[in-house]
Amino acid sequence: MPSAASRATSPSRRRRTTRPLAAAAVLPLLIGALGGCGYGSQKKTDDTGSSALPAAGGKKVDGLDKVKVGYFANLTHATALVGLRKGGQIQQALRGTKVAPYVFNAGPSEIEALNAGSIDMGWIGPSPSINGYVKSHGSNLKIISGSVSGGVKLVVNPKKIKTLDDVKGKKIATPQLGNTQDVAFLNWIASKGWKVDAQSGKGDVSVVRSDNKVTPDAYKSGSIDGAWVPEPTASKLVAEGGKTLLDESSLWPDKKFVITNLIVKQSFLEQHPKVVEAVLRGSVKTNAWIKANPDKAKAAANAALKEETGKPLPANVIDPAWKSIQVTDDPLASTLNTEAEHAVKAGLLEKPDLKGIYDLTPLNKVLKSEGRPAVSAAGLGDQ
Fold first, then answer.
1. CB neighbour list of residue 166: distance below 8 Å, 6 or more residues apart
2. 27, 31, 37, 40: CA torsion to nearest 10
3. Is the peptide bond before 232 cis (omega within 30 degrees of 0)?
4. How far apart, in Å, are the Cα atoms of 203 and each of 195, 199, 208, 234?
5. How many CB atoms lie within 10 A of CB 40?
6. pLDDT tens readout for residues 313-365
7. Is 348 left (phi over 0), alpha (psi -120 to 50) or beta?
């Protein structure tokens, strides 16, 4: 089996799925207890020949041929979906340095790829970011920007669950043991005074770990009564007759919490700071364009999803899903710290030292050049 690094540099067709990563090499989730569960596959969108990808042109930044970036084919990765496509701001900022996008199904496999050097940067959720930082004792990654806030909902079968109290005794899905939504749901359960064993998911509520791809089918079959999931899975469930019982944003101050941030391999940041700054500049400009052109941005994101998954989302799914997410350059650092505290409370993580997980110096440099105020690391930066 070729190494992750060799797969990253080998020739490929426009899109392909690599073989599963060796189980022994996979970075565990928060407590490393997924057992035999797989993390999903990794796909590379070829950097030579896809009409959806922009062409590099001009002088290479830092003399680098290409920068390898990861993300999910998910609306909560809107910055990447829009900014990496043809005409996108990220390639424009990189000029002659080619952007090579890789699509992942789950955070742990993206963290492994970052560790192996298969990617240099990536959009990813807070829980795998925390886990990757803690597992490496603060040596493998930095969070350098925010990306998206919100876009997570508790959707239930209205025939079985009519109030929040009715969730007790029911089967509710989350995407993975220890992932960002799983931690949030376990914390919400605890706030209700109910007891659930985090490992098994058994207790006053049955927490069923289910891949987002199969959750709608599980809901239709009746094997789950609802799900605490990100968009667009939440809106897919609503389209199947589900009811949104709770929007997670209602549980956070100002209704904002980090769901996606941008990370970089520390060694890459040290060796190619100008490339990192260019990606950040493209990300900031992308988010500004999304805010100024919401309908066009929604269409661009849906076109990207069609490119990656084979079909676009129907209007009754993408319209409500798009409204529930907010792009943001601010990493909302205080909410990441709170999410770590939730994981500790659930027994999924020993109390971590997150000092230094952020390096917002490059981002604040870009924001200053755009005439915008600096953002805060909430005491979790290097300084």
1. 156, 160
2. -40
3. yes
4. 6, 11, 11, 24
5. 21
6. 999 999 999 999 999 999 999 999 999 999 999 998 899 999 999 999 999 99
7. alpha
